[in-house]
Structures are given as structure tokens and as C-alpha cells.
Amino acid sequence: MKFLALIIAVALLQYWGSAGPVHRDDWFKSLVDKVSGSGLMPELELALAVLFPVGVIFWLQGFVTGWLLGLVPLALTVVVLLYSFGRRDFETMLEKYREHCRAGDFEAAFLFAQQELAPGCDKECPGSSEELHRWVKERFCYLGYERWFGVIFYFALFGAAGALGYRLLHLYREFREDPAQEQMVSKVLYVVDWIPARLLVLAFGLTGDWVGSREQLTASFQDLDSATADVITDGAHAALGLKATVFSASGDQDAVAEVSDWEIGQLRSLFSRSAMAWVVVLALLVLLV
């Protein structure tokens, strides 16, 4: 049933473009606000805010087991999984940025990055067109990962409750404006992301340039310091045969626009192929286990 729920949820995600119809986060924001005013230790506040909803879903799944020949638990799993997927329409964001690149409109690209990509990032949006594009690639790589791959990894391990817990960690960091709390949650997310991010790098290699990415894949499993976004971006670069620095010193805006558009298109294709690879692997696991 888990694999069937995944297929249904992914199909709905493709149909809607995003899971916006079920992305209603006011209830969790209210919970975070209540917990933050409880006077508990920061670690306990985080645990209570995230684990309480996860525990409710875990209990509810057991309670409705077998209802209507399994249709009720299936529907519950699909809804929770859809809720756990990342916010906003990732494909639309990619296309909007590419449109700005094709038009050579650096100012519009900068404003887009500030409004759509900066939330939840601990780095400031850069000023030059070259630095902006490198920053945007990093943000797109991490957003592409956390909206889908991280969710699916914990869904495969722990079911709908695991997927929900992963999403609530991200929402908690977004809703808490305390820098100390954000730093704490970022450390938790680093640990949570460590394995699935590197499995994504492995998928990049399998669906891209395996020979050129093996060294980067090995380095990623030995890397205990780099940010998750850096690991994913470096893995994507290696799988696509790209270098970290792609612009000439001349700063030709037309060249920057052309390269930016092309690279984002390549990243989009790489993520699509990697997503398909993950679905195939999960299907094989269902058949073999």
C-alpha cells in the first residue's frame, strides 16, 4: 500500500504542479507559537512541536487500519504525503528564472531570487549576475531535494509519519524567528539530510556522468562539514560535467544569461531523471522485500 500511495501522491503532484490544495500550515504555526511560549527548553519545544503531530498520524494510521478494505488508510497516507511535499510550484519557479535569464533581465532575476528563493536560507542574496546565478543554482538544488527526495526517503523508512516529521522540521525553522532556534533546527536538519542527500548524489551519478561523478560521490560520503546544499550542488555539477566556475572574467551579460538558462535546464532534467530512478528503486524493493 505504501508504494501505491506514493504513485497516487506523485501523480496528483504532477497534475496540480504543487500540493497547494492540502498545504494549510496555520494549524502548525499556531502550535509552534504555543510551544514557543511554554518556557520549555528549546530542544523540548522542537520535539513537542514536531513529534506530537507525528504521533497523532502514527496512531491514526493504526486506528483506521482495514477500514473500507484499506481505502481509508490509503487515502490518509496519500493526504499526509502530499502535505509533506515542498511548498510552492518548483517547476514554475524554475521556468520563471529561466525566462529572466533568456531575457537578460538581471534586475528581475534578482528580485525573483529575493522573493521566492531567499526565505529559509541563511545566506544573503548576492549582487552580481554571476554570483546570483551560482547562488540560485545552490538554492534550486536544495529546494529540489527537500521538497521531494528528503520526504520520499523518510516516507520509505517510516511511512507517512516519517514524511510528515521531515516537513514539520522545515516548517518549524521557517516559523521560528529566533536566530538561536533556527540555528538549532538547521543542525538537526543537517543530520536528518546527511544520508538522503548523498543518496541523491548517487542518483545523480547513475542518471548522469557516472565516471565524472564517482570522485565527487566518494568525497561526499567522507565530507562531514559541508552544507547539504553545497554537497548536492557539487554532486549535480559533477554528474552534468560542469565546473563550479562557468563565467568568463569579461562579465558579458548575454553570455551569463545564455549559460544560466542552459544550466538550469540541465539541472531540471537531472532532477527529473533522478526522481524516476528513485521510483524505480522503490518499486524493486517492493517486489523483492
Structure in words:
The model has no long low-confidence stretch (mean pLDDT about 85). The chain contains 11 helices and no strands. With about 290 residues, the chain is mainly α. Helix 7 packs across helix 10 (about 230-240), helix 8 packs antiparallel against helix 9 and helix 8 packs across helix 11. The radius of gyration is 20 Å and the shape is globular. It has one domain (about 1-289).
The major beta sheet can be summarized as:
none
Radius of gyration from CA coordinates: 20 Å
Helix content: over 70%
Span from first to last CA?
13 Å
What is the residue-averaged pLDDT? 84
Overall outline: globular
Structural class: mainly alpha
Q: Could you list the spans in which at least 5 consecutive residues all have pLDDT below 50?
A: none
Put simply, the count of helices is: 11
Q: In sequence order, what are the helices and strands, one letter per element? A: HHHHHHHHHHH
Strand content: under 5%
What is the β-strand count?
0
- How many domains? The number is 1
